[in-house]
Write a structure and sequence with these properties.
Elements: E1 2-5, H1 7-27, H2 29-33, H3 38-55, E2 60-63, H4 66-81, H5 85-88, H6 92-119, H7 124-128, H8 138-151, H9 157-187, H10 203-207, H11 217-243, H12 252-267, H13 274-294, H14 305-330, H15 335-349, H16 352-366, H17 370-399
Parallel strand pairs: 1-2
Helix pairs in contact: 1-3, 1-13, 3-13, 4-11, 4-12, 4-13, 6-14, 6-17, 8-9, 9-14, 9-15, 9-16, 11-12, 11-13, 14-15, 15-16, 15-17, 16-17
Length: 400
């Protein structure tokens, strides 16, 4: 039997399981420690229930995912608004160094994913769903590219991408701390707070004093207006690239418009409600993830389980080697470098919150790392999505 849910019913059910996910995360220490988002937990609970019902022949649900796509675009638009070149310039050398290392990792992950997928006689685009899409990109990018690939005929792309993103969150959280602690013990590293004080200001306070103000209805309304306007203008950018034969993810145009508006306003000394934009983006991300995870067809994962496990194991080993023997020495072989190595595993396999959580655990034990806390949020929260999307776009031109 098939049961169809319309747009509002789909979103309402997703929100119910999002709230359930919050309850579960609040009561399970491991989920909090590895930063598994509540909508991921709740969405997977429903996806598992749906898998059982489908396998038993009881019922198969179909969903109207229109709102999912809108919230996905608004979330990535908020990322565009966060990409401030003015903030980047405050500590450009370590930021660019860390960003370059992350960009190289993106290329490696996609080469491994696409290459090994073809060894297993799979579509190379499915390999990208085991590469930087879920690992550097996280659940947001996985939920965006997966349906796009499925529309292009890549079966199982969504469920593979989300499964790999969930694995990445856990592995990145478990890997980063031990690597950094080993470096600290081996080289007898210590926190040098005075040497890093110039980086001590957070990204938020470096942008505008107005961001410290309480959020109000007016700021939230302005933030959503800015997100929706940028998303609308961004459709013309996507259409232009489509006409010249370049395939972009549906959110890329909106991200570019957000970036342009933000930096023009910085130059013109026009203050944007950045804190409200961040909050609106986070709300959009939670709605998007709840719907994306809930609508997964987990039964499509069975035939792809073995290739996915092998590819993820290789990706994990490469990340271990890269973080230990490339990121740490390039970033300076000091305590700050150790903290950034822990963070690199966090967002290189999962997401920026994992990176921050890895550093917090480390610094709570060994002391502050102010430069790392300046560099990592800028790269992970502002610019890595642009790099990842650009690399993926190039790969797609060869694999499509």
């Amino acid at each position: 039997m098939e049961f169809a849910l319309d747009l509002m019913q789909t979103t309402a059910l997703a929100m119910i399981f999002f709230l359930l996910g919050r309850v579960i995360v609040a009561h399970v220490e491991f989920l909090r420690r590895v930063c598994i988002p509540a909508p991921v937990v709740g969405g997977l609970v429903f996806a598992l229930i749906h898998l059982a019902l489908h396998s038993a022949g009881v019922v198969t649900f179909t969903f109207d995912e229109t709102l999912k796509n809108a919230f996905m675009i608004w979330f990535f638009t908020s990322v565009g608004y966060g990409a401030s070149f003015k903030v980047l310039a405050r500590g450009i050398k370590p930021v660019l160094g860390f960003l370059l290392l992350a960009g190289i990792m993106v290329v490696i992950q996609d080469l491994v994913g696409a290459g090994l997928a073809q060894v297993f006689q799979l579509d190379g685009r499915l390999g990208l769903c085991m590469g930087s899409i879920p690992l550097v990109g996280g659940h947001g990018t996985a939920g965006s590219f997966g349906p796009q690939f499925e529309d292009a005929g890549v079966m199982g792309a969504s469920v593979v991408a989300v499964a790999c993103a969930t694995y990445g969150l856990v592995s990145g959280s478990l890997m980063g701390g031990p690597i950094a602690r080993a470096k600290i013990k081996k080289y007898n590293l210590h926190s040098m707070v005075n040497e890093g004080e110039e980086y001590g200001e957070s990204v938020e306070t470096a942008q505008s004093p107005s961001q410290a103000k309480d959020l109000g209805v007016d700021s939230i309304v302005k933030s959503f207006a800015l997100l929706i306007i940028a998303a609308g203008i961004g459709t013309y950018i996507n259409a232009f690239f489509t006409q010249i034969g370049v395939t972009l993810p549906t959110y890329m145009g909106a991200m570019i418009v957000g970036l342009v508006i933000r930096n023009v306003c910085d130059v013109a000394h026009v203050e944007l409600p950045m804190r409200a934009i961040d909050v609106s983006g986070n709300v959009s991300l939670n709605v998007f993830l709840a719907v994306a995870l809930m609508t997964l067809k987990l039964w499509e994962l069975a035939s792809l389980a073995v290739p996915m496990i092998i590819i993820l194991a290789i990706q994990t080993f490469i990340m271990f080697l890269y973080a230990s023997y490339v990121v740490f020495p390039v970033m300076g072989r000091d305590y700050e470098a150790a903290a950034m190595t822990a963070a690199f595993c966090g967002f290189g396999m999962g997401a920026t919150p994992n990176a921050m959580a890895n550093m917090l655990v480390l610094t709570n034990k060994f002391g502050p790392a102010p430069k790392a806390f300046f560099v990592v949020p800028i790269v992970g929260g502002m610019f890595i999505d642009f790099v990842n999307t650009g690399v993926l776009t190039v790969f797609l031109q060869f694999l499509s």
